[in-house]
Amino acid sequence: MDLLNTLVEKGLRRELPSREEALAVLATSDDDLLDVVAAAGKVRRQWFGRRVKLNYLVNLKSGLCPEDCSYCSQRLGSKAEILKYTWLKPDEASRAAAAGVAGGAKRVCLVASGRGPTDRDVDRVSQTIGAIKEQNADIEVCACLGLLSEGQAERLKAAGADAYNHNLNTSEATYGDITTTHTYADRVETVRHAQGAGLSACSGLIAGMGESDADLVDVVFGLRELDPDSVPVNFLIPFEGTPLADEWNLTPQRALRILAMVRFVCPDVEVRLAGGREVHLRTMQPLALHLVNSIFLGDYLTSEGQEGKADLDMIADAGFEVEGTDTTTLPGHRGGGCESPCGGTPADGDEPAGADAASARTDLVTVRRRGAGTDLAPNA
Known about the structure:
Layout: H1 2-12, H2 19-26, H3 33-48, E1 51-61, H4 90-102, E2 107-112, H5 119-135, E3 140-144, H6 152-159, E4 163-165, H7 175-178, H8 184-196, E5 200-202, E6 205-207, H9 213-226, E7 230-235, H10 252-265, E8 270-273, H11 277-280, H12 285-288, E9 294-296, H13 308-317, E10 321-322
Parallel strand pairs: 1-2, 1-9, 1-10, 2-3, 3-4, 4-5, 6-7, 7-8, 8-9
Helix pairs in contact: 1-3, 2-9, 2-10, 3-10, 4-5, 5-6, 9-10
């Protein structure tokens, strides 16, 4: 297929595809799916070899959020029966992080619900970062605390944070349909605050909220313009008790096409398979490893994920290897430690066709009841 040959050549050169080419990836048929995965896999292996970076989430503060993000089980007015608790103490968070590190995680992601941190919150998180780094000096720590005020990114950097996450989530044109308590521009500003402070920027999207192909391409091109080091791709988890509980728009095949499109647009960036992979990719998760070079290990913020051991088995069975702390994730031209190629051998859209409503797998959404904020051990 000429389209895929062109996209591979562009990906190996780090050249941005056109919007029309990105839309064409999303429009490919299921008959062409394996060809799409194979083509994007060549780009993934050029820059990241067969390495998979493991990340581990620690939910420092669950629920109780004043924002109205429609996709979120922690939102204002959410009726989702999730765990709700206030700030974990630094030693509690450090113990939670240790479970992920023991499972092979290279990065610990510290997340707290809310519009954004107060200065006191930044102090709390700074102490938590110190506690984690004291036990695991080589582990990367990423903070995700919402919108940042002036100077807060610098304080997190000084405390030892390596990265900051703040997702764009959806296109600027449709952002107001998802959230009204802050804007797309607010999110862009926070990512730029993080970059300006010398933090590695992590910013991604959520697919499956009823968006069009054009919306997906818009947000990914917006991310490419921001140039974060890491792009998490989340698939909506339709929690009962949230406004998007009935949005079951994804099939495993469409999820794979979305990941392939992101890889072609962001060829040399850490593309992370994030929340919702078990719900929407299901038994096709191993194919996604040919497109992404990073995943979350174990549970998410408010939902349970695949068992940590199953994640490790999946990686090994698919012929990939877990990336160690002694390996730099990004290729050399992005500030990483390895020369490019970094391991391995080069080798306006329509509305999406949704999954059949009758096939919605609501049984796959399991509220997290273990790990951080509970007396039960995590699953890592």
